[in-house]
Amino acid sequence: MLSRLRGLAVVMGWCVSATASAGPIKTIQPKRHSRIDRWEIAPRVGAVINDPYLRRYLLGAGLSYHPSEIFHVELGGDFSPDLGRADWKPITVELLEERELIASISRWTWSVDASFVFTPFHAKANLFSRIVDLEVYARTGAAMIHTEDDPETFVDPNAASSQATQSENHPAMIAGGGVRAYLSPNTSLRFEVRSVQYLETFNSASIQKKNYAVPSLSAGFLFPTDRADR
Question: What's the pTM?
């Protein structure tokens, strides 16, 4: 028993010595970056995941100005190519070709947006033996969405009522939030989900409310970059 206690004491001594040689562990560590009075450009990719008829993939970018660490404003834009029938989901093919029904189908082709972003939560995480700054943020703002109705879904594509609303711009409201991880003082990765809501007129007759969920992944680059690490 005495020999076991001696062995335990030796092991504890080694642990204390190793901890002391490694230096003190900081419970609260400073941020490794500063955004105050800096700009940020963030290319992004995303998708509309709850369109019942179409697959819509978005490619865009945002430009932000950070007057403080917790508030910033952002201007952005997205583009989604028209791939014709390649955009159709299986349910769309079934409705239009097999059952010969009519569906109200329109494509989100491009958009511009302006939003106000609030970042109230900051944290740190150990990612692959590397300390990473994490932030949780929320956004709200407005957008202009351009849509194109699919002429293959019209009873008469040449009718004046069909052509009048085939191409439209829609004022929209956006709201959402996400998580940002800083890989360096000037570079970050961001995942967020936005809700985009607007009213759309289809075939000059029916008015529909659209509420799309848009997850996106982006990379942020702060500039100017000649800032010292914190």
Answer: 0.80
